[in-house]
Amino acid sequence: MIEIFVVIKDKNNRYYLLKIQRSGFDVYCFPPHLGVHYSLHESGKAHFRPEGKSSKPRNELPVMMIDGEAGAPIDKGIIRENLVNLGHASCIYTTIYSIKSLSDDFRKFNRSARECFVIDRELFTPNTSLIEIGVWAVPERNEVSFEFNNPDIPKNLLYKLVKCEPQIWIYARPI
Q1: pTM of the full predicted structure?
Q2: Cβ(30)–Cβ(18) below 8 Å
């Protein structure tokens, strides 16, 4: 299993935004402490699921979670293209975060992680209040399909995990 953490750095502090896990052709996206995650399975079934553990009541994170691609409704999810033999870049999951008050809204990230996408808050204008984090599956043979769908992502706002196929690419952009 591969884990990638997405954090935002604001001066000397890092704040935890998202954890992505990949196990085979299953991908899971966990915004921290919400009690819900997004899954895309090898079967092509995708869904949001409660994690079954409840935390102490508190104000929830200012987060909007968006399914990656359309598909056919089934049970409590959808069936969409899976990642096996993927021929083009495919959006897995997108999250929009309010970054107005990072220290009030997000927990500090003090872990060391093998795979960690650190987004520097200073890369955005001071009036940026929302950022989009996108998680994509990108086959090595068709990286241009990601670039076509996501033009002008600066290199310092793009994280590529290339040790799997399809690769997992994560980007950040201001909204």
Answers
A1: 0.92
A2: yes
CA distance 84 to 95: 24
pLDDT digits (tens, 9 = 90+) for 90-109: 999 999 999 999 998 899 99
Beta strands in the chain (DSSP E): 2-10, 13-23, 26-30, 36-40, 45-50, 63-67, 72-74, 77-79, 90-98, 116-120, 130-138, 158-161, 167-174
Strand, coil or helix: what is 121? Answer: helix
Is 150 within 8 Å of 134 (Cβ atoms)? yes
Rounded to an integer, what distance in angstroms lies between the CA atom of residue 79 and that of residue 45?
4
- CA dist 111 and 90 (Å) reads 30
